[in-house]
Amino acid sequence: MKTKYFVLVFIFCFFCSSSYSQFGFSHEVGIITGPVVFYSDYGQRSNIETNMNNVGFGVGLIHYLNFAYRADCNCYTRDTYFNDHFKLRNEISYHKTEFQHYGRWVDPSKTSLIAEQLRGMRGSTSVFDIGSQLEYFPLSIRDFVAGSYKIAPFVSLGAHWVNFSPDAYTIFEPFELGQSLYPDKYDESSRRTEPGSTWSVVWSLGFRYKLTPMSDLMLDGRWQFYFSNWVDGLNPDVPENLANDWIYWLNVGYILYLD
After folding, report:
1. Do 173 and 185 meet the contact criterion of CB atoms below 8 Å apart?
2. Per-residue pLDDT for 255 more than 70?
3. I want to staple 43 with a disulfide (CB 3.0 to 4.6 A). Which of 18, 50, 63, 254 is the partner?
């Protein structure tokens, strides 16, 4: 698995470097990091305690194609709306989250067998993804780079390929509860610990802050919806299981402009 990740990182870096000579657009590189709120099959839906505790952490490398400038001549490109308001963002990232059940069904006042089974359940998932997003800047990219204003908001939309490695287990030993260690809806067919892959759609809202003429800080809030419900390792076949897994990732980034 580590070999696969290394190969993907190599391909990502090769693409970024080769695009420099092939397309002539200017380039930006950076790093992002921040907390990941994972909306999974653990815990109670729309519960603050669940959302605040099932939080992981992620890090990523990003590369931008800046269509407003040409790298081969260090000059402006043709002045079009697209060139002055859009950037292509390529990204490779990784995040991991630990899971536990929270909410009303595991409240200390609950003393049923199901409550004990839920309290004993644990899980985690490691997610590696690579993909691209098209970012739209309402304000002029050229004016922002030239220092006409300090803050440049943006929205983006894209697609990422995802590789995930989940784990699902219980802290109880066999027969410790006298019966099954898992509630019926989390039977063996609803738990999976094998690695898998899927696609996801990504959309975000954020802004850049002009730090120096050649660097920016970025704050980016991302929603990422997976086309699979096995990313967290659970997929119970029950009516209340209404949606696939998804995340909200609030990340801070540092971006460097390349000559």
Report:
1. no
2. yes
3. 50
- Domain residue spans of the chain: 2-258
Q: Which fold has domain 2-258?
A: Porin (2.40.160)
Residues 89, 87: Cα–Cα separation, whole Å: 6
**Which residues are registered as beta bridge partners of 62?**
30, 91
Q: How far apart are CA 171 and CA 99, in angstroms?
A: 13
pLDDT greater than 90 at residue 204: yes
Per-residue tokens: 81: 């709306």
Would you state the pLDDT for residue 10?
45
Report how far apart the first and last C-alpha atoms of the chain are (Å, whole number).
35
Between 9 and 228, where is the model more confident? 228
The dihedrals phi and psi of 206, each to the nearest 5 degrees, come to -165, -165
| CA dihedral over 47, 58, 62, 193, signed as positive or negative | negative
Q: Residue 72 pLDDT more than 60?
A: no
Task: Identify the residue whose tokens are 């894209």.
Answer: 158
Q: Is 50 helix (H, G, I), strand (E, B) or coil?
A: helix
Return the higher-pLDDT residue of 19 and 239: 239
> Bridge partners of 87?
66, 135
Which tokens is 167 given? 């784990």
Which residue(s) pair with 95 in the sheet?
Answer: 58, 127
**Higher pLDDT pick, 71 / 30:** 30
pLDDT beyond 90 at 126: yes
- Residue 203 is inside which H or E element, if any? strand 196-212
Name the pLDDT band for 15 (thresholds 50, 70, 90).
Answer: low
d(CA 250, CA 237) in angstroms, rounded, equals 31
Q: Which of 201, 233, 203, 251 is nearest to 94 (CA)?
A: 251
Q: Is-contact 159 131, C-beta < 8 A?
A: yes
